[in-house]
Amino acid sequence: MSALPTPRRLENIQTDRGSLPVYATGTVEQPWESYTATDHDVWRRLYARQREILPGRACDAFLRAQDTMGMTPDRIPKFSDLNAALGAATGWQIVGVEGLLPELDFFTHLAHRRFPVSWWIRRPDQIDYIEEPDLFHDLFGHVPLLMDPLFADYLEAYGKGGVKAHAIGPDALMQLARLYWYTVEFGLIRQPDGLRIYGAGIVSSKGESIHCLESAAPNRIGFDLERVMRTRYRIDTFQKTYFVIDSFEQLMDATRPDFTPIYARLAGQDTIPAGSVLPTDHVFQRGSGEGWANGGDV
Ligand code: PHE
Ligand code: FE
């Protein structure tokens, strides 16, 4: 990944911690003409493979949005085309980036309804797994739900919360990162017809799309804000625990309060290992733990 340019200060936003600087960094024009036939073919194969397994697994809002926003199945979509649909639906925009951004830059983009998308796509030998978020993960996984008005509001609020947490300190940032991980990346939602996926890290992975719903190994536990913010996670294996929301309204309502006192309270409490089940949990499934990697829960 190439080095990012020095952040340029754009403006300040007002928060209850005072006026905070806003930066713009590293956003790039999507070099669409430079994609090779191999790049388009990787997109086409991944798109077809996921769309084959996601009906009945991904939540209705995700599938509906992906259908209506005009993602081309056979070639890498143009960000400008998707932005027209996103802009009309919720006012979100996607911006091209080289890779992961510094935390404050990432939060600042979200706070302004801009979602950073890696412009490059994985190689054919990385179809099943890639460590860094590439275009397929970002675009296929994250962007459809930006069409959903409630989820769109949640992610903007998350970005604003991130700017604030960044000013509070590393513990607050860690707690907020866990919330992102267990909702935006690996969240499950309860639909009338059963549990469904909304997390981008799941819908962009064939293995985890099946595992998260059908395997006996992981825990599936009802969402509880502070419980989630205390739960450690691993980034290198399937999750040991998935948290289930009832609706995006529930997520909005739970995250609306000021987190400042929550951060302070949680700082005095132990973190929870990724695979633990607590007596207070609302358990949908207690995982068998089969195949879990031992130790190393971050
Ligand atoms: N309400 C949170 C705060 O005051 C911000 C937030 C909103 C965080 C939504 C996450 C998700 O910090
Ligand atoms: Fe992601």
From TrEMBL:
What reaction is this protein's catalytic activity? Answer: (6R)-L-erythro-5,6,7,8-tetrahydrobiopterin + L-phenylalanine + O2 = (4aS,6R)-4a-hydroxy-L-erythro-5,6,7,8-tetrahydrobiopterin + L-tyrosine
Pfam families to which the protein is assigned, alphabetical: Biopterin_H
Q: Where does Fe cation bind?
A: H137, H142, E185
Q: Which cofactor does it need?
A: Fe(2+)
Where would I find the Biopterin-dependent aromatic amino acid hydroxylase family profile domain in this sequence?
1-298
Q: Name one GO biological process term.
A: L-phenylalanine catabolic process
Pathway in which this enzyme or protein is active: Amino-acid degradation; L-phenylalanine degradation; acetoacetate and fumarate from L-phenylalanine: step 1/6
Q: What is its EC number?
A: 1.14.16.1
Q: Please, which domain of life does this record's source organism belong to?
A: Bacteria
Molecular functions per Gene Ontology: iron ion binding; phenylalanine 4-monooxygenase activity
User: InterPro entries, per this entry?
Assistant: ArAA_hydroxylase (IPR001273), ArAA_hydroxylase_Fe/CU_BS (IPR018301), ArAA_hydroxylase_sf (IPR036951), Aro-AA_hydroxylase_C_sf (IPR036329), Aromatic-AA_hydroxylase_C (IPR019774), Phe-4-hydroxylase_mono (IPR005960)
The protein's UniProt keywords, in alphabetical order, are: Iron, Metal-binding, Monooxygenase, Oxidoreductase, Phenylalanine catabolism
Q: Which SUPFAM superfamilies match?
A: Aromatic aminoacid monoxygenases, catalytic and oligomerization domains
Q: Which NCBIfam families match?
A: Phe4hydrox_mono, PRK11913.1-2
For this chain, the family text in UniProt reads: Belongs to the biopterin-dependent aromatic amino acid hydroxylase family.
Under what name is this protein listed? Phenylalanine-4-hydroxylase
Q: What is the lineage of its organism?
A: Bacteria, Pseudomonadati, Pseudomonadota, Gammaproteobacteria, Lysobacterales
